[in-house]
Write a structure and sequence with these properties.
Layout lengths: L1 H6 L3 H18 L4 H4 L3 H28 L2 H19 L3 H27 L5 H35 L5 H10 L3 H6 L12 H24 L6 H37 L18
Helix pairs in contact: 2-4, 2-5, 4-6, 4-7, 4-11, 5-6, 6-7, 7-11, 8-10
Length: 279
């Protein structure tokens, strides 16, 4: 019994990390503004999600390494499936996410099992680094596919509106803002408005003009918008998570070092006969 409890030690942490990840993602699945936002708070939120993705990958590999029994992996996989359904429901995006999680975790478990059976010298950073990269990449891919189905439903209901962040960026980068003002149909009335109201009116006129122009450009390609958004989602989080994973690699070494020092695990040394060719 104690042996199995030790093998399940990191399971609660894995479930908690996944719950936090689902909670964060649930806010993103119904919007696309964050992809184009230049807000520091949005950047912080995306970094937090990337940290959770890396942390979840780390904890699952750690749990799989210590458990090394499919009968222990399956219940945790079912628990993760249920958590995904709780946060995202039975709609298509939720089912894709939940089923995708089960599939990739099974694949990763097989990879961990093969590595643990065939390694010669236990060096956690070098052994598990490729698997962390593989798992986080697959996880982001599944999330991006799920995001595609979710945002596609949003666009079918509400249509696609150019986010204000893009309009503001265009305004800031515009070489001749006065020319944009003259393109507004209401430009003749600007002189009749007080200074503060005039500034607001000018800005609204510019935003309206730019939004209309961009909407006209993308209108023939509106069917590709969900795919483009999902691709941007994948690229964004894959890039950030790749940087976060650099810290996770060292965390493996530190974790096993601490586990050894507290007596949670032990290492044995053995000699093996090596066959070499000599000419």
């Amino acid at each position: 019994m104690i042996k199995y409890l030790k093998k399940l030690t990191f399971a609660p942490f894995l479930l908690v990390a996944f719950a936090f990840l689902c909670h964060k993602l649930s806010y993103l699945f119904n919007t696309y503004d964050f992809i184009f936002s230049l807000s520091s708070q949005v950047y912080i939120d995306m970094i937090n999600i990337s940290i959770l993705i890396s942390l979840f990958s780390f904890l699952f590999i750690l749990f799989s390494t210590l458990a090394m029994e499919l009968k222990l992996i399956i219940p945790i996989g079912v628990a993760l499936f249920i958590l995904a359904i709780i946060f995202f429901g039975y709609q298509l995006s939720g089912l894709v996410f939940a089923i995708g999680i089960l599939v990739i975790l099974f694949i990763i478990y097989i990879s961990v099992e093969n590595v643990m059976k065939n390694y010669l010298n236990f060096s956690p950073a070098s052994i598990f680094s490729p698997i962390v990269k593989y798992l986080s990449g697959l996880l982001i891919f599944v999330i991006a596919v799920s995001y595609y189905f979710s945002i596609n439903n949003v666009l079918m209901k509400n249509g696609f509106q150019i986010p204000d962040s893009i309009i503001e960026t265009v305004i800031e980068l515009s070489p001749n803002i006065n020319q944009l003002i003259k393109q507004s149909n209401d430009s003749q009335s600007l002189l009749k408005i007080n200074s503060e109201s005039q500034q607001n009116f000018i800005r609204d006129s510019i935003k309206k003009t730019i939004r209309g122009q961009i909407q006209d450009i993308i209108k023939p390609f509106i069917g590709f918008v969900p795919i483009i958004l999902a691709l941007l989602f994948f690229i964004t989080f894959q890039s950030i998570t790749s940087l976060v994973n650099l810290l996770i690699y060292s965390l493996f070494w530190l974790t096993f070092f601490v586990l050894e020092k507290i007596g949670f695990i032990t290492f044995i040394e053995e000699q093996r006969t090596v066959r070499k060719i000599v000419i």
